[in-house]
Amino acid sequence: MKGSLKPKEVWSHFEKICEIPRPSKKEEKILAHLIRFAENHGLSWEKDPTGNLLIRKPAHPGYENRKTLVLQSHVDMVGEKLGEVSHNFEKDPIQPVVNHEWVTAQGTTLGADDGIGMAAQLAVLESETIEHGPLECLFTVDEESGMTGAFGLQPGFLTGKILINLDSEDEGELFIGCAGGIDTLARFSPSYEEVPGHYMAFRITLNGLKGGHSGDEIHKGLGNSVKLLNRFFWEESREYDLRLCSFDGGNMRNAIPREGQALLVVPRERREDLIKHLEEYEKTVQSEYRVTEPNLKFTAEPVSKPPHMYTRAFQDNLVKALYACPHGVYAWSQDIPGLVESSTNLASIKQNGNGNILVTTSQRSSVDSARKDLSQKIRCAFELAGGQVEQAGGYPGWKPDPDSEIVRITTQAYTDLFGEKPVVRAIHAGLECGLFLQKYPDLDMISFGPTIKGAHTPDERINIHTVEKFWDLLLEVMKRIPEHTG
C-alpha cells in the first residue's frame, strides 16, 4: 500500500497505525506511539487520568490570532474477524490491502474507524506548511466499548472552543447531532439436567451474515444471528423435544451479530427431522432476507454428546425472552425525514466459564425519554424470564445547531471546494460529542469524515477517493477558522 495512495501523508500514518494493536481497553501501544510522535516533533502533550491524550501545536505563522481548534478522534478499534481467520487483536497487526477503489483488511476489521481520523491529525501535526491557528489534537480512549474516555474527560483539559470530530463515515455529509445510548444487560443462571441416553448432539451454526454498525446500519434490514437461531429453537422445541445445552452468538455491543452457534440435543429418532426442518427453515429465512443477506447459511454438525442440557423450564424462559426482545428500528424521527429516532440491538449472548449467560443489548435514541422507555421495555422482557438486569454505559445525545459558526464555515468550504452543497444532518450512531458538551457546554462542534462501509465487521472498507476529499476539506476549514473577537 505504501506510496500508492493520496494524500500520501495521511495514508502513510494510517499504515503505521494498522501495525499497532489497539482493541478497546488495550490502547497502551497506540498511545505510546502517539507520545513518541509528539516528542520526536517537539510538540507538547498531556495525558489525563482516564488515558486521553492531548497534543498541542502552535499556530502557523500569521495565524496566531485565530481561535484555538480541537481536532478529535478515538484511538481504539473494534476487533472482529471471520471465523476461519486466525488473528489476535492484542498482538497481531492489521493487514490493509487495496481492492480497486477501496482499502480493506485480510479477514478482519480494518480500523479505519477511527484510524483514519488519527492519521489525519498526525499529518496535520507533522506538517510545516499547513495553514492553521493554534491546535489541540485530542485522542480519546475506549470509545467503542463504552466511551470511557469521553466520560472521563474533565473540564479544563481543553482550551479550544471549536471542535471537529473526525469519526464520521459518509463523505459529503456533515453531522451536527447524534443519538444517545444505553446498554441493557441480562444475566441468567441456567439450571441443568442430565441428557438421556437415547439423545444425540448437534452443533447448529449460522454464518454468512453481513453484520454491521448497530447505529449506522440498524435500518437496513440486516439479519441478526441471535434472533434467527433463537427463532429456529422456539419453533422446533414446540414440535418435539429439542433441548439446548449452550448458545453463543454475536460479539460487540455496537455491532449487529453476524455469526452464532448452539449445542443442542434431540432424541435419536428425531435426528432426520432436525436436519430436514433446518433445511426448510434455511430456505424460509433465505427468502425473507434474499436482498440484504444473500449469503446466510445454516449447518448442523453431529458432535459428542454433552452430559447436561438446560432444563425445560429454563430453556423456555430464555428462548421466549430472546424472541420477545425487540431488535431494529423502533421509531422514526418526527422532525427529520429519514432519520431513525430510536432503535435497539440484540448484540450478543455469551456463556462464561462459570456457566452463567450474559445477554447484551444496546438502545439508541435522539430523544432521552424514548431511550429510557425502550430500555425499560427490554428490562421487563428479561426480568419476566428470570434474568438479573442492569443498565450501563448511558451517554447523552448531541442536539443539532444548524446555525452554528463551524457549521456555516464547513458548509461554505465544502461548497467552494467541490461545487455542491453537502448534506447537513444528524446521525443515529453515537458520537462522543454529546459527552463533550456536558463538560464543555460552549463547544461549537461538527463531525465529518471519508466514506467507510461495513464498520465493526470484517467487511470494513474505506473509499480511497473520499479520503482525499476529506483531507482537502479539513485543510480548508482549518484555514477559515476565524480570529478571536473582543
Question: How do the strands and helices of this protein lay out in sequence?
Answer:
Layout: H1 8-18, H2 28-40, E1 44-47, E2 53-57, E3 69-74, E4 96-99, E5 102-105, H3 112-126, E6 135-140, H4 148-152, E7 162-165, E8 173-178, E9 180-188, E10 192-194, E11 199-207, E12 212-213, H5 225-239, E13 243-250, E14 255-256, E15 260-267, H6 271-288, E16 297-303, E17 308-310, H7 312-324, E18 328-332, E19 340-351, E20 357-365, H8 368-384, E21 388-395, H9 405-418, E22 423-427, H10 433-439, E23 444-447, E24 452-453, E25 461-463, H11 464-480
Parallel strand pairs: 3-6, 3-7, 7-23, 8-22
Antiparallel strand pairs: 1-2, 2-6, 4-5, 5-25, 9-20, 9-21, 10-17, 11-15, 11-16, 12-14, 13-15, 13-19, 18-19, 19-20, 24-25
